[in-house]
Amino acid sequence: MASTPPPPPPPPPPPNSGDRKKPEDKGATRRDSPSWSRYILWIAVGTLLTVMLVNYLTGGESREQVTYSNFLESVDQGEVEEVTYDNNDGGIVFATELGDFETTGPTPLPDADHDLIGENTKLEFETPKPNFFTSIFPILLPVLLLIGFFFWMQRRAQGQLGNIMSVGRSKAKTYSTERPGTTFDDVAGYDGVKQEITEIVEFLKHPAPFAEIGARVPKGVMLVGPPGTGKTLIAKAVAGEAGVPFLSVTGSDFMEMFVGVGASRVRDLFDSARKMGKAIIFIDEIDSIGRKRGAGLGGGHDEREQTLNQMLAEMDGFEPTDGIVMMAATNRPDILDPALLRPGRFDRQVVVPLPELDDRKKILAVHLKGKRTSDNVDVDLVARGAPGMSGADLANLVNEAALFAVRRGRDQIDAVDFDSARDRVILGIERLSVAQSPENLERTAYHEAGHALCAAVQDNHDPVHKVTIIPTGMALGVTMTLPTEDRHTLDKAEAESRMVMAMGGRVAESLVFDEFSSGAANDLAQATSIARLMVTEWGMSPAVGPMSLADGGPVFLGADMMQSKNYSPDTAKLVDTEIRRILTESEDRCREILTEYRKGLDLVARALLEHETISGDEVERLIALARSGPVTVHNTQTELEPETGLQRPIPAEVTVSEDS
After folding, report:
1. What does each C-alpha distance from 618 to 84, 475, 485 come to in angstroms?
2. Strand-pair category, 638-640 with 613-615
3. How far is CA 615 from CA 351, 461, 479, in A?
4. Secondary structure letter of residue 97 according to DSSP
5. In Å, how far from its chain's centre is CA 607?
């Protein structure tokens, strides 16, 4: 019986990422390596000049200069003991009892003077050899300048050639041992999102449990969500948790003025990732290169489509990409190419939505770390008052509250600072410099009172939070409502109540002034938008029925030129008729409410004229008092608010008569 050969040994595990050397970023230049070659020539020239200067300064001893006639007179008197004559330049150095002197004589020395000197004085003739540096420098200097010029030209040409040759290299930033310090603990909330991302991180760190059951890691994860929800922050947390090299790049880094650069950078990016064994590639704002191909007027963008084609081939082509995980982030998934989102490329789409109430509490707790807050600051209350805000909006809210605290001279953030910050973020800055006439101010007061009253008396509408006639943002007045809980759907009654509330300002002006103004333009736009959605998308019109007539609206210029409407002209006419009917019914309902609560309308408008800003509780109190009987609002005065030092009106004194 033949023996069975032993099974081959398993392949050695890949080296630990912690022991792997940090790969060089091909798209960046190493600034920490000194380039001594460019300074060698200048160092040599400087050394030569220094040596020549030192040699010149220390070339001889300092002697007193005298004239040649004084020298001859000293020789004639027998005072000169020794004379040294230089045959080159006629320099004479002579020694006397008083010291050494120096002069310059004729060249050559006349015979008479030669005989005079030679009678009683020791005479020496010398012909000094020229200094090496002094003799070579006049010849060497032009040569050095010429060599330096050619060397500079060569270096410049090499630099330009290197920039051209490196234009196709990836600009991705690589993080391995020096990863960002962000972890999943720094990402507040989003437990479901972190669970899916953590699964991929665990696969890269510990692939054995997944390999035993035959599971494979998703090749790509697409983070989808509104702006400011923390998609890039989650990617940074992955870089801090993964333990494998992390390559980060933005979609715009692939595009360049040269043709084919984007595809070349994609190839270089994946080649760098393959050399690392295991790696995560993160592309932020991938919609800049992942748009649908061939869309728009005149076709697509050739360079962008070439880049996308290369990315598709690298993600799921002939080249293996085992151990490489793609991550991308976008807030426009509707414009991405379908081939990019299919399984095998981006297998998962992880939605990063706007934070819920619990998530907002955790996010606020993170941003409040390190900030001095008062005891009356309730994080739960602040979170409930910030529905629909993203993580970036909440961070801005906390920062605005801190700025208000500093502006008011406090050393800690108070609850009133958060209220002011919320109004600043949602409504805009108050434009106190806008001057309005009394007639226009009264019209604005009744307009906002109409909005506030319609919102307050309807049971299925969000409660009124604040009403002001101070110009805020782009509006002359604002009525602000806040929901009591997070709402993801809208029923028919709620939609109708919102349209009634939007019509409140226009109808109030009609009842009081018997005319309309342009101040209701934005209100009509909001009401018309809700009515159109009820008819075309939400199926809330009995005449149209349960049919969706939503027009997706092409996002590319000219993409709808060859498309026709998916409904007939008769249906379009029916849609217009239903929208007009719904808006007319909402206006009639609003008129009935304001007519019934006319006393409350006058009372709220009068309070706005005197106080400029009132709260939602004050609106409800005034409406309740108006229903009890005839109401008289007395004149109010102002008082000094101790906390802010500003003049604030004293709450209005309201008198209700006993007879209804």
Report:
1. 116, 22, 22
2. unpaired
3. 37, 16, 10
4. T
5. 44
One-letter amino acid identity for 439? E
Which of these, 556, 565, 19, lies nearest to 336 by C-alpha position? Answer: 556
Amino acid identity of residue 223, one-letter, is L
The catalytically annotated residue of 314, 448, 496, 578 is 448
Q: Is residue 241 among the annotated active site residues?
A: no
Cis peptide bond prior to 108, omega within 30° of 0: yes
Find out whether 239 and 248 touch, Cβ atoms under 8 Å. Answer: yes
Tell me the Cα Rg of the chain: 44
Phi and psi at residue 646, in whole multiples of 5°?
A: -105, 155
Supply 229's token pair. 């929800």
> What distance in Å separates the CA atoms of residue 347 and residue 12, rounded to the nearest whole number?
29
The two structure tokens encoding residue 472: 């805020």
Residue of 483, 509, 510, 486 lying closest to 497 (CA atoms): 483
Q: Which residues contact 656 (CB under 8 A, 6 or more apart)?
A: 625, 628, 629, 630, 631
Q: What angle do CA 565, 568, 572 make, to 5 degrees?
A: 85
Domains assigned to the chain? 55-128 (3.30.720.210), 173-351 (3.40.50.300), 357-426 (1.10.8.60), 438-553+565-656 (1.20.58.760)
Burial class (CB in 10 A: 0-12, 13-18, 19+), 435: exposed
pTM, full prediction = 0.63
- DSSP states along 224-274: E--TTSSHHHHHHHHHHHS-S-EEEEEGGGG--SSTTHHHHHHHHHHHHHH
Through-space distance between the first and last CA atoms of the chain, rounded to whole angstroms: 114
Which residues have a Cβ under 8 Å from the Cβ of 208 and sit 6 or more positions away? Answer: none
Gap between the Cα atoms of 546 and 509, Å rounded:
37
Minimal CA–CA distance to 516: which of 458, 569, 447, 575?
447
Structure tokens at 142: 């032009």
350 touches 231 (CB < 8 A): no
Of residues 170, 201, 182, 198, the one with CA closest to residue 278: 201
Residues of the chain with pLDDT under 70: 1-41, 45, 48, 51-62, 90, 111-121, 125, 127-138, 156-181, 255-260, 295-301, 317-321, 432-433, 435, 551-565, 629-660
